[in-house]
Amino acid sequence: MINSLEKFREKGIKLTPQRVAILRYLDGNKGHPSAEDIYNKVRKIFPMMSFATVYKTLERLKQRGDILELTIDPERRRYDPDTRAHHHLICIGCKQVVDIHTEITITLPDEVKESFELTGNHIEFYGMCSDCNTVRKNILTG
Amino acid sequence: MINSLEKFREKGIKLTPQRVAILRYLDGNKGHPSAEDIYNKVRKIFPMMSFATVYKTLERLKQRGDILELTIDPERRRYDPDTRAHHHLICIGCKQVVDIHTEITITLPDEVKESFELTGNHIEFYGMCSDCNTVRKNILTG
DNA sequence: GTTACTGCAAAGCTTTTGCATCCCT
DNA sequence: AGGGATGCAAAAGCTTTGCAGTAAC
After folding, report:
1. Most-buried pick from A27, A114, B5, B109 (CB within 10 A)?
2. Pairing mode, if any, of strands A87-91 and A97-100?
3. Nearest alpha-carbon partner for A95 in A126, A119, A65
4. Cα B135–A85–A11 angle (5° rounding)?
């Protein structure tokens, strides 16, 4: 996401210290953090930073296409600095979300293609990670 | 979803008039309504019905596996009385959601299968419906 | 010097909850 | 009769917004 901070300055984005801290936290982050995750983390460096700054910065980055807003969690929005097309695997136990970069081709029926101009897709895989599976088995066997 | 209202009575679910109205509204509904959609519609029949009743009923139905809670809209939760495995096609223009019942097989890499026990998946297709596409073209051509 | 950003507080929405009353079974 | 459901209002979360002050450019 951040090749260089210059990339942002070039496009009329002001690089405030708060923003740089948010960008640094997001860069390469594979945890699909929520606004609160970002707030809690960055606040350790900038204790005065407000929630509004986090939301406004996320909105700005989203508009610019620098991050994706994910709709994989019914409780809150999550953000992904990886803007390449990819999919997600969600553990129904601990709710962790893992990226799936496997290329997947999906063919829809002609009747759909005629009435819709398709632009993309996103797959949510559901399952149980080995940790949660181990816990589950231990419970079952007493 | 509703083969017969008896099915609900059998399982210890009390069939109040409000609930029957909600069930009737949901039965066969392909519009993926939100709690507010349900409230607005059913309130025309039961003006005294509260939002709490809608939410509590939806929670009960969800627990029983009679409806699915969809996470396809970042603004609000939507509900689907069709509990069969299926996918969704979302118009990025008017936000309408269409069911996709095409059977789709997806193969994930072995390394994923080894660390996750997969239980299901859900695909969101994005595109533009013919109505929105027409509008867009008219704007572009003046 | 401009313009955009920050921080705060208030407000807006969606969803949940407590509780007294009501009514389905 | 008993247990669950209703309705109301209050509260809880998440997210947005207005505005005055501030800082990046």
Report:
1. B5
2. antiparallel
3. A126
4. 75
Stretch among B34-38, B63-67, B136-140 having the lowest mean pLDDT: B136-140
**Can you spell out the DSSP letters for A6-26?**
HHHHHTT----HHHHHHHHHH
Q: What is the pLDDT of residue B2?
A: 54
Tokens (6 digits) for B67 = 């409806």
Choose the closest CB to B74 out of A71, A92, A122.
Answer: A71
Comparing B9 with B28, which gets the higher pLDDT?
Answer: B28
Q: Between chains, do A117 and B127 touch, taking CB under 8 Å as contact? A: yes
pLDDT tens digits along A53-103: 999 999 999 999 999 999 999 999 999 999 999 999 999 888 889 999 998
**Residue A138: pLDDT band with limits 50, 70, 90:** confident
Chain C positions within 7 A of any protein Cβ atom are 4-9, 13-18, 23-25
Distance, CA of B42 to CA of B25 (rounded, Å):
7
Beta bridge partners of A88: A99, A124
| Nearest CB partner across the interface for B116, out of A74, A77, A89 | A89
Pinpoint the alpha helices (H) of B1-142.
Answer: 6-10, 17-26, 35-43, 51-64, 110-115, 130-140
- Which phi and psi (to 5°) does residue B106 adopt? -125, 130
Percentage with pLDDT > 90 across chain B: 66
Burial class of residue B84 in the structure, from the number of CB atoms within 10 Å of its CB (0-12 exposed, 13-18 middle, 19+ buried): exposed
